[in-house]
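Pasting as-is:
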Amino acid sequence: MKHKLITVFVVFFFGLQGVFSQQDPQYTQYMYNTQVVNPGYAGSKEVLSFGALMRSQWVGLDGAPKTGTFTIDGSK
């Protein structure tokens, strides 16, 4: 039992050394860019429109998450 516990600890510790991750994008500006969350909204307007949004979180910290979107919308 003690040998298994030590093995699990060693594998867990060395496994953390090379783990990197990404954060899911944050869409807090949904009211300005509805196509990002719901692509079915595209084409619902009778005009051609362009949209671009940029969101930075935790500004000034290394590796802080940033989300950017660019959309073009128009009907047939």
